[in-house]
Amino acid sequence: MIATVKSYALDGLKGYPVDVEVDTQKGIASFDVVGLPSGAVKEARNRVRSAIRNSFFDFTARRTTVNMAPADVRKEGSAFDFPIAVGFLASTEQISSARLNEFVMLGELSLDGSLRKINGVLPILISAVQAGYKKFMIPAENATEAAFVTEAEVYAVRNLSDAAAFLGNIVQIAPVEHRIYSASGQNAYGADLKYVKGQVVAKRALEIAVAGGHNLILCGQAGAGKTMLAKCIPSIMPDMTFEEAVETTKIHSVAGILDPAEGMIKTRPFRTPHHTASLFSLIGGGSKSTAGEVSLAHNGVLFLDEMPEYNKRTLETLRQPLEDGVVTVTRVARSIEYPARFMLVASMNPCPCGNYGSSDPNKRCTCTYNERKRYIGRISGPLLDRIDLFVTVDGVEYDELRNPQHEESSAEVRVRVAAARDVQRRRFAADGIHTNAEMTNAQIEKYCRLDAASEKLLAAAYSKFGLSARGVTRLLKVARTIADLQCRRDIAASDVAEAVQYKAKERFYDE
How far apart (Å, rounded) are the C-alpha atoms in residues 284 and 331? Predict the structure, then answer.
């Protein structure tokens, strides 16, 4: 007898249906899985066999064939254990097959028959609902994540025995209660700008960068506070909208790093890969074409501490996602696109020893001019051209450092940032983007018009600093954000002047 159970698989962040067909016949005992299964799927036969026996069902030796359709697409992961086991029980008439067509089933089986958490439940459910499926049976550990898909009727199952009893109408299982998303509204990272002494220019740059979603480099002497400033960025970022939270959660769910107790990412990611990170870990890829750090930082921040220490080839791969907001991971058998719209924040020293420009006689720079040039030259011109704000972080005097009075807090700055983001959200409501940094050339022409004085100032900056065409468009985006922070409808000459100040990166190369 043949039993068919509906399941689902993922190709990147997009799901597609898989029919798990189980045929059991009398004959020489065997258990074959066909349909391009990966190693984890092939091993399902051993887990299914033990789970069925330990759930007190009969697993008498039979000739069993499991086909996973479509057969020309490779199946990966352990989420097919549960539908295979249910299919076997239905094929051997140990449970009724009358209700099998009602559900999409997913889950990994333990040897004792209990269901383990699987990765990627949120994107699977969203794809399946869009395809017309409504009812699902999943592991109980995935229930919180699934509860946010309000269009789905989800049944959380703890073990194979409960699933069989439910399908046979012996017991009733209530569907998972839906949950409504609400942002955390809290500073989950602990850092706060009120503890950062001085650094008025750098703090202003942080506010502008976050308000418009712009990329930022902090350059300064060792110990000046660059890393501390960067770690304060999440504390001034606005709450994620539900759409942004879903986009981010899908990536983290597939990567297997989602907290099952939360079920949804509620704070913007702040990813800080070590400078020894490989190209694949940063961009994504590998045998399973998994998401990299640039995608895990989607709708948040990717912080590269001591940027020149990263492998130059690895850094160059950032150019495409910085420009397009997506990264395409291509392998021989598949090509997967992951979203990667993040703020790039980087820190760097002015020289290898970190003391160049210091006024402290005890911190004299020992680097030659050529050593400095080679050090800074590890970051290519095309990559620097994609940075919107260049900020020099100077050291703080002792009296200012030990001043017991707190500076402006992150909460106060966050109010202004949220107001500017709200202006942008209304402006781009029909354009499908969220921030000024995402504007296209057509949108720049529409929203970044300059008066005569501003145009003259921009022309002078173009000539003096040797800006590229890309550099001009990024400068205009920053000027638009500065105007938004000042609640101005039109960009003023002062907004352009301040944007030029942050784009003038030539001082990083002073002799």
Answer: 11
- What is d(CA 25, CA 124) in angstroms, rounded to the nearest whole number? 32
φ, ψ for residue 303, nearest 5 deg? -105, 120
Same domain, 348 and 223: yes
Q: Which helix (H) or strand (E) holds 89?
A: helix 81-91
Which strand (E) or helix (H) includes residue 207?
helix 200-212
List pLDDT tens digits, range 159-213. 999 999 999 999 999 999 999 998 766 666 778 899 888 889 999 999 999 999 9
Q: What percent of the chain has pLDDT over 90?
A: 71
Give CA angle at 119 (84, 37), nearest 5°.
40
Average pLDDT over the chain reads 91
Structure tokens at 35: 């349909």
Q: How far apart are CA 343 and CA 12, in angstroms?
A: 22
Q: How far is CA 230 from CA 7, 226, 233, 236, in A?
A: 44, 6, 5, 11
pTM beyond 0.85: yes
Measure the CA–CA gap between 222 and 5, rounded to whole angstroms: 61
Give 339-389 pLDDT, tens digit per residue: 999 999 999 998 999 888 777 778 888 899 899 889 988 999 899 999 999
Q: Is 383 helix (H, G, I), strand (E, B) or coil?
A: helix
Residues 148, 211 within the same domain? no
Is residue 138 domain-shared with residue 227, that is, in the same domain?
no
- Cβ count near 96 (within 10 Å): 13
* Structural domain boundaries enclosing 435: 193-509
Contact indicator for 376, 505 with CB cutoff of 8 Å = no
Q: Where are the beta strands (DSSP E) in 12-52?
A: 14-25, 30-34
> Are 152 and 197 within one domain?
no
The neighbour count for residue 430, using CB atoms within 10 Å, is: 5
DSSP E strands, 281-349 = 284-285, 290-291, 301-304, 326-330, 335-339, 343-348
Please report whether residue 119 resides in a domain. Answer: yes
Strand partners, 326: 339
CA distance 275 to 268: 22
Does residue 143 share a domain with residue 77? yes
- Residue 183 domain-assigned (yes or no): no
What are the residues facing 392 on neighbouring strands?
Answer: 219
Same domain for 222 and 130: no
* CATH number reported for the structural domain that contains residue 427 in this entry: 3.40.50.300
Same domain, 252 and 161: no
Could you give the C-alpha distances from 50 to 114, 160, 289, in angstroms and in order?
Answer: 11, 11, 31
With beta carbons less than 8 A apart as the criterion, state whether 341 and 270 touch. Answer: no
Q: Is the same domain home to 117 and 241?
A: no
* pLDDT value of position 27: 80
Cα 237 to Cα 277, 301, 439, distances in angstroms: 26, 10, 19
